[in-house]
């Protein structure tokens, strides 16, 4: 559970040490309207071009765009592409580049030709040497990393198999990090997971995980089965298998499994989406979040990244808008007007694979205790519905002098909270009927209840959901606030 603003403030205090294969990404955009008379190949009429820092450098850029500091260790050649990379990285105020130069190898460079009309890649040309760095270069890379380690809060290895993360470099980094108590995240390329032994988290995609485990991976059950041996081989705390439009699944060595669905997005370009995921995992875990929160932030960031052209970065503001999409709506737009409208919204959210949460109350005079329950409820789900007792219901429960504010006023105040996605007013004394209609995945109440006392817990459990109890803030009560106000007035 998390408060996004608190998480944002924690992220900007973190420093990530990122090590990996940097490359120069060039995108040439144009239109294709004819076939070459010289060969059966399309001719692209180039209109514009862009240069980006790619590979592990894009991971570093994403770390910086999220507000964290990044010490970036990479390898370039003594060439024009290497100088361009140095110049581009020098523009990033939150990135401290430590680039080792090896004159014996070229800087990795990739040029993509993109049809703007069809938003498709037509061709990619690569300049690279996919061979391990020399022993001399390995030593320089290791020395650079070890000297930077004490200043880092977490270590991220971004392996593109271009020669930086050799077995020797990986071993030295992980061993040195563990001695200092630093967690290590690895976006792996090698199918031999043993070379990453001792890392905290490995983040292969489904194809890479299948190759590493020599298994067919078609479901979460397959991931759970294959991860047992994989975690033992890598001596890792967890393995996260990213699955593009199917979301991501984390297998922990304690046997637990967390699956987070992908968020809906209009895909323009998937280049660098994995870099964004790795960066978000690093900054959120360094900031102290739990696995579930970190994964949900990562899926939201991936949805933002793939909706942009080229090798893209994601800012905290963009991430916030994706995680809290209803925060910018007017209050009246977040109040359900009918049962049919509620059903339609539920159907849309479920079509998107989103986890729906529910909490309820009278919320007569909104106070910090209410805000805590609502914000923590939203952190436990993807979309939060708040059930609000009607005026008649409040009078039956609280007495003839309540509520202080009518139901419309209370609904609008609740709807103004960014943590709330939808407010539903109900007439009954309990929300049982509403919970039966919604069938939430998460049911949240204050910690002054036991699980068995929470109305609707049987319905939620029967549908495979969970009940979450939030610690209440002592000293905050609407009844006591009303009593004090009336005593002062008297």
Describe this protein's structure.
- It is a single chain.
- By secondary structure, this protein is of the alpha/beta class.
- The chain has two domains: 4-323, Ribokinase (UDP-N-acetylmuramoyl-L-alanine:D-glutamate ligase, 3-Layer(aba) Sandwich); 331-489, 3-Layer(aba) Sandwich (Rossmann fold).
- The protein is built from 17 helices and 18 strands.
- The protein has helices at 4-11, 56-65, 80-90, 135-148, 167-179, 206-213, 220-234, 273-286, 291-306, 316-323, 339-351, 368-379, 391-398, 407-415, 432-438, 457-462, 478-489; strands at residues 15-20, 22-35, 42-55, 69-76, 95-101, 109-115, 120-127, 154-158, 183-187, 201-202, 238-242, 248-252, 257-260, 356-361, 383-389, 422-426, 442-446, 466-470.
- Strands 5-4-1-8-9-10-11-12-13 form a nine-stranded mixed sheet, with helices on both faces. A five-stranded parallel sheet has the order 16-15-14-17-18, sandwiched between helices. Strands 3-2-6-7 form a four-stranded mixed sheet.
- Strand 11 and strand 12 form a beta hairpin.
- Helix 9 packs across helix 10.
Give the tags.
phosphotransferase activity, alcohol group as acceptor, UDP-N-acetylmuramoyl-L-alanine:D-glutamate ligase, multifunctional enzyme, nine-stranded mixed beta sheet, ATP binding, elongated, 2 domains, Ribokinase-like, alpha/beta, five-stranded parallel beta sheet, Rossmann fold, 490 residues
């Amino acid at each position: 559970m998390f408060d996004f603003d608190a998480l944002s403030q924690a992220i900007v205090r973190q420093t990530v040490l990122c090590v990996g294969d940097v490359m120069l990404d060039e995108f040439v955009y144009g239109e294709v309207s004819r076939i070459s008379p010289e060969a059966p190949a399309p001719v692209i009429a180039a209109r514009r071009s862009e240069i980006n820092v790619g590979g592990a450098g894009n991971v570093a850029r994403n770390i910086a765009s999220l507000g964290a500091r990044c010490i970036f260790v990479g390898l370039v050649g003594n060439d024009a592409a290497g100088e361009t990379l140095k110049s581009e990285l020098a523009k990033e105020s939150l990135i401290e580049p430590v680039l080792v130069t090896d004159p014996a190898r070229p800087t990795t460079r990739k040029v993509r030709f993109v049809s703007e009309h069809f938003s498709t890649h037509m061709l990619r040309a690569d300049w690279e040497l996919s061979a391990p760095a020399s022993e001399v270069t390995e030593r320089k890379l290791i020395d650079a990393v070890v000297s930077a380690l004490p200043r880092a809060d977490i270590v991220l290895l971004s392996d593109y198999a271009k020669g930086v993360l050799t077995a020797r470099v990986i071993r030295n980094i992980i061993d040195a990090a563990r001695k200092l108590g630093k967690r290590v995240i690895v976006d792996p390329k090698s199918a031999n997971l043993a070379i990453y032994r001792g890392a905290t988290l490995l983040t292969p995609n489904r194809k890479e995980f299948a190759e590493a485990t020599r298994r067919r991976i078609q479901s979460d059950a397959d991931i759970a089965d294959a991860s047992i041996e994989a975690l033992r081989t890598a001596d890792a705390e967890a393995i996260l298998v990213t699955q593009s439009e199917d979301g991501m699944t984390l297998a922990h060595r304690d046997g637990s499994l967390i699956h987070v669905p992908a968020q809906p997005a209009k895909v323009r370009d998937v280049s660098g989406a994995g870099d964004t995921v790795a960066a978000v995992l690093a900054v959120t875990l360094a900031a102290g979040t739990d696995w579930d929160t970190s994964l949900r932030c990562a899926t939201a960031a991936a949805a933002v990244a793939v909706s942009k052209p080229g090798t893209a970065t994601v800012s905290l503001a963009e991430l916030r808008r994706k995680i809290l999409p209803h925060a910018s709506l007017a209050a009246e737009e977040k109040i359900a007007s009918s049962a049919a409208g509620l059903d339609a919204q539920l159907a849309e959210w479920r079509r998107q694979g989103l986890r729906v949460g529910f909490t309820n109350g009278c919320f007569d005079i909104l106070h910090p205790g209410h805000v805590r329950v609502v914000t923590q409820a939203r952190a436990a789900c993807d979309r939060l519905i708040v059930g609000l007792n009607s005026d008649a219901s409040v009078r039956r429960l609280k007495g003839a002098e309540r509520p202080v504010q009518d139901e419309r006023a209370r609904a609008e105040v609740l709807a103004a909270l960014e943590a709330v996605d939808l407010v539903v007013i109900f007439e009954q004394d309990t929300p049982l009927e509403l919970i039966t209609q919604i069938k939430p995945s998460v049911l949240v109440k204050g910690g002054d209840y036991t699980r068995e006392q929470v109305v609707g817990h049987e319905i939620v459990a029967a549908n495979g959901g969970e009940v979450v109890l939030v610690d209440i803030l002592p000293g905050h009560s609407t009844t006591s606030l009303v009593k004090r106000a009336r005593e002062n007035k008297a």
